[in-house]
Design brief:
Layout: H1 2-64, H2 70-98, E1 106-108, H3 110-127, E2 130-135, E3 143-145, H4 147-164, E4 173-182, E5 186-192, H5 221-231, E6 235-240, E7 246-253
Parallel strand pairs: 2-4
Antiparallel strand pairs: 1-3, 4-5, 5-7, 6-7
Helix pairs in contact: 1-2, 1-3, 1-4, 3-4, 4-5
The structure holds adenosine-5'-diphosphate.
Length: about 270
């Protein structure tokens, strides 16, 4: 009896340790995508800052004029305000995505979550000469889950797809991200590329931790992504396209109680 209690306690402790380790790993995976995005993020923040500096100069000149151009100065000040809001929105989105935060369950609009991630990665995709097409289904039912964790998965799939097309020069590097309803109670998100694909017998290996074909990364993105999707009672898989490239997709039950333990991925 005593032993059994010890076993239970021990297994609870090891569950907690496992949860903490996963949380650390998920965070490391997020930070490594952050590194990939650094140049684009700098660009996203720098653009409004340049606008602010220019407008501030214009505003001062308008106020210094004789007589001062108050209407012009006011309009320019409003432009400064708009650019400031733009810059802080980028920072807020980044903070939400990369901060170390306990998992939370909320109602998630998958289309909106995915649109935010594509906006954040759009200049990175442009730099990689990727043509992004968005095919989000209308009237997609919401799901319950951890929004940031799901965004991490989407970001990982997008960056992987862009990587897989890096060597493609003989066709447009087209990437499609989309959603659709699968039966009345599941939503699917897919990311389709025209990259190099993978050998069919390696399909399952891709999801193993530390499996990578790249030289400068850890190869934990897909394994962390799969554990996030599974904690949402969903499934994440890879398929080869009929034409070139691969499609990665996940499906998650939707509705109010679609996830009861997204926290399983991370420590509380
Ligand atoms: P990483 O991207 O750090 O290597 P991941 O776990 O995200 O780690 O991916 C593991 C491996 O799966 C990649 O190194 C790559 O070989 C393969 N892979 C992932 N996404 C794609 C894709 N869209 N097309 C082809 N291979 C892919």
């Amino acid at each position: 009896m005593g032993n059994k209690l010890d076993d239970v306690t021990e297994s609870r402790f090891s569950d907690e340790a496992l949860g903490r380790a996963r949380s650390e790993l998920a965070h490391v995976a997020r930070v490594s995508s952050l590194c990939t995005l650094t140049a684009s993020i700098a660009h996203e923040v720098n653009q409004p800052l340049t606008g602010i500096a220019t407008s501030a100069g214009t505003c001062v000149r308008m106020l210094d004029a004789d007589p001062p151009d108050l209407t012009g100065a006011r309009t320019t000040a409003l432009r400064i305000l708009r650019d400031t809001n733009r810059a802080s929105a980028v920072v807020a989105r980044l903070r939400a995505l990369f901060a170390k935060k306990a998992p939370t369950l909320e109602v998630v609009d998958l289309n909106e979550a995915a649109r935010e991630v594509t906006a954040l990665s759009s200049s990175e995709l442009q730099r990689a000469e990727v043509i992004l097409r968005q095919e989000f289904a209308d009237h997609l039912p919401p799901l319950t889950g951890d929004r940031v964790q799901l965004q991490q998965v989407i970001l990982n799939l997008l960056l992987n797809a862009a990587d897989a097309m890096r060597a493609v020069d003989d066709r447009p590097r087209q990437l499609i991200i989309g959603t659709r309803l699968d039966r009345p109670d599941r939503v699917i998100l897919f990311v389709q590329d025209v990259g190099t694909g993978f050998e069919p017998q390696r399909a399952d290996k891709l999801f193993e931790p530390f499996h990578t074909t790249k030289s400068d990364v850890m190869g934990i993105g897909l394994s962390v992504s799969r554990s996030i999707i599974e904690s949402h009672h969903g499934r994440l898989w890879a398929m080869l396209n009929d034409g070139p490239g691969a499609t990665f997709a996940f499906s998650i039950p939707c509705g109010p109680a679609s996830s009861s333990d997204a926290g399983g991925v991370s420590a509380r």
